[in-house]
User: Which sequence fits this backbone?
């Protein structure tokens, strides 16, 4: 039996390294017919902000080669609605439930994180400092070391459980950003959020998204995500959670070999809603085949000589 | 909801649309009129996401669904040309449904008659709707089907099994010439306050039908087809602005009462 237990530190212990990425798995309930939640290390629920957000106007999505652009813009009903109406329904799911905390000011991040800190069944937050789809939202903090230090330090003061910080790939040096997050108190970093991109309808001479630009995700971003996970895992001591185009157990293993301790499945949930429940077993199969007794041994096990 | 491999057992092709008959090994869940499926096209980079297609008919005893597919892009073109025997992975059933009469209550707002208006390939969900109305509710609906020309009006024989069929074409090659909202049969229908109007087709056509139904004080539902990714209400890409804020066409819809919409 391969041991899939994944300890990300500060009390966040996953049954296996598989998480579902925020914004691609709703609140879990949407996928209940397709996935046994006890096959997952955890679910990271939709980006949650202090106040309700209507999100961006339609159209918010454009298909691109092996991927898609989105410009949802953090549509959510706010943390108070989450606490009152959604949390009671999902608190006792047979897996870890993490909340993705988003915001546009430090005060908002802090207030939202403080509220989530009081939720007994939420062992961790993923701090979203990297949403590319909101004006002055998130990504403004996530693209320079001063910004990320400020927001992580402030949230760290009020959030006492596992603090994961989700990083933007739309930066010159993601390693510097990751180091700043680590120095400011992050317990782990997850990467990558979407890449800023654009799609145009030539016949209409118009952008395909209402916001003109949006976040690129899907299989097409995997090589970039792998490279960044590789670089960041060399630069920080805290665990790295890898995501970006993972569409199979083999993809998940590749991210772990590059240095990830856990992985997130995102856009692939749209293509195969049952995928996330199967990846844990696939990782175990790989371990068995190649002589690893625990999936944690895969982290950084890439041979480069 | 299930995710299952279906086998294409029969395909019938017209100029712009194909009728695909697909069977799976597992027993189909109950499918309601107006619901849709998400079809995986192939492993091609240009058809990365699934394609939402409405359910044209269900043959529960054969675990069979029919999809009427119009060629609008790469994905639907591939679907329309699939060889018999192809395996197609499908997630179903998705979304809400058109409002059916409630057999258990006797409220006065209960629809007694149905006018099902379809435009182009938007006629697709109305066949199954008509079948359910006739076989389960003993209601024979009126179909009003419109197209650009005669070649757009497919499956008319099938529609006639479940209700009276009226047609329009923009070029006058079949039925009355003009748009569905110009058809003479509408005049006699405005007086029937128990009439439920259900519409699926291009947005300008649905807006025109909605306008007509609103003016005639008739209850009216339309089926939207915003661009979507997940089909499950998770990604929030396909939203429509409504009186209740942004709602997902895939989960809160695709069927909306016109009073919910900001048209």
Assistant:
């Amino acid at each position: 039996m391969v041991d899939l237990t994944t300890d990300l530190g500060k009390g966040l212990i996953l049954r296996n390294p598989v998480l579902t990425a925020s914004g691609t798995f709703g609140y879990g309930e949407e996928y209940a017919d397709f996935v046994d939640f006890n096959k997952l290390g955890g679910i990271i629920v939709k980006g949650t902000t202090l106040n309700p957000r209507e999100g961006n106007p339609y159209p918010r999505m454009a298909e691109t080669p092996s991927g898609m652009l989105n410009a949802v813009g953090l549509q959510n009903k706010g943390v108070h609605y989450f606490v009152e109406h959604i949390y009671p329904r999902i608190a006792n799911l047979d897996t870890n439930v993490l909340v993705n905390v988003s915001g546009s000011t430090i005060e908002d991040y802090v207030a939202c994180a403080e509220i989530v800190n009081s939720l007994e069944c939420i062992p961790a937050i993923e701090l979203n400092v990297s949403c590319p789809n909101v004006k002055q939202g998130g990504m403004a903090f996530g693209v320079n070391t001063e910004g990320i230090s400020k927001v992580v330090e402030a949230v760290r003061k009020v959030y006492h459980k596992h603090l994961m910080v989700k990083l933007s790939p739309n930066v010159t040096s993601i390693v510097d950003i990751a180091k700043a997050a680590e120095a400011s108190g992050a317990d782990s970093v997850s990467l990558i959020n979407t890449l800023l991109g654009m799609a145009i309808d030539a016949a209409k001479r118009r952008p395909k998204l209402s916001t003109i630009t949006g976040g690129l995700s899907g299989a097409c971003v995997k090589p970039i995500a792998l490279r960044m996970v590789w670089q960041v895992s060399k630069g920080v001591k805290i665990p790295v959670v890898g995501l970006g185009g993972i569409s199979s157990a083999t993809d998940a293993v590749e991210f772990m070999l590059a240095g990830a301790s856990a992985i997130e499945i995102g856009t692939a949930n749209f293509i195969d809603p049952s995928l996330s429940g199967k990846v844990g077993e696939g990782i175990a199969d790989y371990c068995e085949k190649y002589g690893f007794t625990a999936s944690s041994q895969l982290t950084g096990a890439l041979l480069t000589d | 909801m299930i995710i299952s491999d279906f086998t294409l057992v029969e395909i019938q092709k017209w100029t712009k649309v194909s009728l695909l008959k697909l069977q799976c090994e597992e027993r189909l869940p109950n499918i309601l009129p107006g619901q849709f499926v998400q079809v995986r096209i192939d492993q091609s980079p240009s058809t990365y996401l699934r394609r939402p297609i409405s359910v044209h008919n269900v043959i529960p005893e054969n675990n069979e669904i029919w999809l009427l597919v119009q060629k609008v892009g790469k994905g639907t073109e591939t679907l329309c040309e699939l060889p018999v025997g192809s395996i197609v992975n499908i997630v179903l059933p998705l979304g809400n449904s058109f409002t059916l009469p409630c057999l258990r209550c006797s409220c006065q707002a209960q629809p007694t008659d149905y006018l099902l208006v379809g435009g182009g390939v938007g006629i697709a969900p109305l066949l199954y709707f008509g079948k359910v109305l006739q076989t389960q509710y003993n209601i024979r609906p009126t179909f009003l089907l419109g197209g650009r020309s005669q070649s757009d009006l497919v499956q008319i024989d099938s529609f006639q099994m479940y209700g009276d069929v009226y047609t329009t074409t923009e070029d006058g090659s079949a039925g009355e010439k003009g748009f569905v909202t110009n058809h003479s049969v509408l005049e006699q229908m405005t007086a029937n306050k128990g009439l439920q109007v259900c519409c699926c087709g291009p947005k300008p056509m649905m807006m025109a039908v909605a306008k007509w139904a609103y003016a005639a004080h008739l209850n009216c539902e339309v089926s939207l087809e915003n661009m979507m990714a997940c089909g499950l209400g998770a990604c929030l890409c396909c939203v429509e602005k409504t009186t209740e804020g942004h709602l997902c066409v895939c989960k809160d819809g695709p069927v909306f009462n016109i009073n919910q919409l900001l048209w």
